[in-house]
């Protein structure tokens, strides 16, 4: 609603998506500055990422690199702003802990996570007017230029052999204790 005047300019789907008879589950609008960084994660969506202005820099890792990507379990937290304007991180102690990737691919701690040496990251930049297809289950870390504007389209993934293979990798990593 904050940027509702921009909505008429944003398509609700990529025009050729009609051919597949598959429409996006979500269309996300992104506006940010250079200090906004998205930590390494994966999504269960096929992602078409379109940059309108500025530039996004992606570090991508395929699902087959899962054994080399560390996971931890963390307590969710929120920022709380005090009357003086200062922020404090407050644990949501009533919430279940969530799995997250503690590694910063820009400066990986290889002493702590030596298995990451075997990962094969791919770096790419997406500039204004360009689109990136980011397959489901691919790990990604994202940085952007100041004032970057982007829209992405999330299409539900097929729960096929790719998903089953990834679940096998997850189970093997959990069993081997390499999370």
TrEMBL record:
Q: Which SMART domains match?
A: JmjC
Recorded source organism is Monopterus albus (Swamp eel)
From the Swiss-Prot or TrEMBL record, give the protein name: JmjC domain-containing protein
Extract the signal peptide range.
Answer: 1-21
Q: Which Pfam families match?
A: Cupin_8 (PF13621)
Q: What UniProt keywords apply to this chain's record, in alphabetical order? A: Signal
* Gene3D superfamilies (UniProt xref): Jelly Rolls
The source's domain of life comes to Eukaryota
Q: Cite the JmjC domain residue spans from the record.
A: 4-170
The beginning of the lineage is: Eukaryota, Metazoa, Chordata, Craniata, Vertebrata
Looking up InterPro entries in the UniProt record yields: Cupin_8, JmjC_dom, RmlC-like_jellyroll
């Amino acid at each position: 609603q904050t940027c509702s005047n921009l909505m008429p300019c944003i398509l609700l789907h990529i025009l050729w998506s009609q051919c597949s008879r598959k429409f996006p589950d979500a269309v996300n609008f992104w506006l940010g500055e250079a200090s906004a960084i998205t930590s390494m994660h994966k999504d269960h969506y096929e992602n078409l990422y379109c940059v309108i202005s500025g530039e996004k820099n992606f570090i991508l890792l395929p699902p087959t690199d899962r054994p080399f990507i560390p996971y931890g379990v963390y307590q969710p937290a929120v920022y709380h702003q005090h009357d003086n304007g200062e922020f404090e991180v407050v644990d949501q102690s009533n919430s279940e802990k969530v799995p997250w990737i503690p590694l910063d691919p820009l400066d990986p701690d290889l002493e702590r996570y030596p298995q990451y040496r075997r990962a094969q990251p791919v770096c790419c930049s997406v500039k204004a007017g360009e689109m990136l297809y980011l397959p489901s289950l691919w790990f990604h870390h994202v940085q952007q230029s100041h004032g970057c504007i982007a829209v992405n389209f999330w299409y539900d993934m097929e729960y096929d052999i790719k998903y089953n293979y990834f679940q096998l990798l997850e189970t093997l990593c959990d069993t081997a204790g390499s999370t």
